[in-house]
């Protein structure tokens, strides 16, 4: 079940979009808004799986709202534009992961686009999780390397001896090598 934020210039068009989206997705809730400003606040205050924007908006650029959501949240973004603006909008949004659909809305195109957006969003979320794990591991390796350098410099030992000292400290104290490295850095940095 997905949480969907729908933004359109009028309440009527937002409700029409909600009807269409409900046919291709299974939202647990739909929030309908009529301004980019209120949509920005909503995106920062709450979590939404998808943002659906019907351009143009009265108070701000629909494209700017979509770009902000795509770069600052994990929300999947679907943007509807008039057919004459489709090519220009695609060129502005293509690298941001925003799905752009030209109006009038054709149900099979909406269904396929939403399925693709869902798939891409899942892949991006998975990659972000993997990236966070790798960043954590990289930070750990940096900290251990820094501790090794301090041990080599301050105690005059070899790299393998420094590594062994960190491992032994971690094992004796029943802490991770990262925590042991942090302790060594605090001790020898003074």
Write the layout of secondary structure elements.
Elements: E1 2-7, H1 11-24, E2 27-33, H2 36-45, E3 50-54, H3 62-72, E4 76-82, H4 86-93, E5 99-103, H5 107-155, H6 159-173, H7 177-188
Parallel strand pairs: 1-2, 1-3, 3-4, 4-5
Helix pairs in contact: 1-5, 2-3, 5-6, 5-7, 6-7
How is this structure best described in words?
With 190 residues, this protein is α/β, with parallel strands linked by helices. The protein has a five-stranded parallel β-sheet with strand order 2-1-3-4-5, with helices on both faces. It has helices spanning 11-24, 36-45, 62-72, 86-93, 107-155, 159-173, 177-188; strands at residues 2-7, 27-33, 50-54, 76-82, 99-103. Helix 5 (107-155) packs across helix 6 (159-173) and helix 5 (107-155) packs across helix 7 (177-188). The protein is built from seven helices and five strands; from the N terminus they run E-H-E-H-E-H-E-H-E-H-H-H. 63% of the residues lie in helices and 16% in strands.
């Amino acid at each position: 079940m997905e949480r969907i934020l729908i933004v359109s210039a009028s309440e009527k068009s937002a409700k029409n979009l909600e009807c269409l989206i409900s046919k291709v997705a299974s939202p647990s809730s739909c929030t309908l808004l009529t301004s980019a400003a209120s949509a920005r606040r909503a995106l920062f205050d709450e979590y939404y799986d998808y943002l659906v924007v019907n351009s143009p908006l009265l108070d701000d650029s629909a494209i700017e709202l979509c770009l902000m959501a795509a770069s600052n949240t994990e929300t999947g973004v679907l943007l509807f534009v008039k057919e004459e603006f489709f090519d220009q909008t695609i060129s502005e949004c293509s690298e941001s992961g925003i799905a752009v659909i030209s109006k009038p809305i054709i149900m099979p195109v909406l269904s396929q686009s939403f399925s693709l957006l869902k798939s891409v969003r899942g892949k991006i979320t998975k990659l972000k999780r993997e990236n966070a794990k790798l960043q954590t591991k990289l930070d750990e390796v940096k900290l251990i390397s820094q501790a090794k350098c301090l041990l080599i410099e301050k105690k005059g030992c070899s790299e393998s001896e420094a590594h062994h000292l960190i491992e032994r400290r971690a094992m004796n104290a029943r802490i991770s090598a990262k925590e042991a490295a942090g302790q060594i850095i605090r001790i020898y940095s003074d």
